[in-house]
Amino acid sequence: MAYKLGAVDDELNFDSEPALDGLHVRVTADVPLSAFFDLQIWLSSGDPKQMRDAFELFGNEILMSWDLEDDAGPVLADGAGVLSLPLSLAISIVTAWTEQVGSAPKARGASQNGISQSVGELIETAT
């Protein structure tokens, strides 16, 4: 019997950002490796078009739900919703996801078998 890939979802952890206490963001934790690297490369490119594409990809392919509201009411949990956020909040959400899924559950923030789990180091080797 073959191993079957399945969707894994997770709630983001904002422990390092007390200002976001109470924000609940549900995301898919398993995306194709190509999407993970595309997101990282586009965000670090400095190219506004690629950065916009990265946030839109996050909203459309990774973001599942959130309890986020603005003055007009609930903010849609999709690419358009992500693009409507203040830059600092959008970066905080994407960074939390990257840090959570970019490391093995047993070794988050650590090294396993001498292989760094740092997303920054992964990006450097991919570019």
What does this structure look like?
There is one protein chain. The chain has helices at residues 33-44, 48-62, 79-83, 87-101, 119-126, and strands at 9-11, 25-28, 63-66, 69-70, 73-74, 111-112, 115-116. The chain contains five helices and seven strands. The model is unreliable at 106-117 (pLDDT under 50). With 127 residues, it is of the alpha+beta class. Strands 1-2-3 form a three-stranded antiparallel sheet. Strands 4-5 form a two-stranded antiparallel ribbon. A two-stranded antiparallel sheet has the order 6-7. The longest helix is centred in the middle third of the chain and has 15 residues, at 48-62.
Mean pLDDT: 83
Helix content: 40-55%
Q: Report the major sheet.
A: 3 strands, antiparallel
State the shape.
globular
Q: What structural category do the secondary elements indicate? A: alpha+beta
Strand order of the largest sheet: 1-2-3
Distance between the termini: 37 Å
N-to-C order of helices and strands: EEHHEEEHHEEH
Number of E-state strands:
7
Low-confidence stretches: 106-117
Compute the gyration radius: what is it? Answer: 15 Å
Please report which band the strand proportion falls in: under 5%, 5-15%, 15-25%, 25-35%, 35-45% or over 45%: 5-15%
Q: Helix count? A: 5
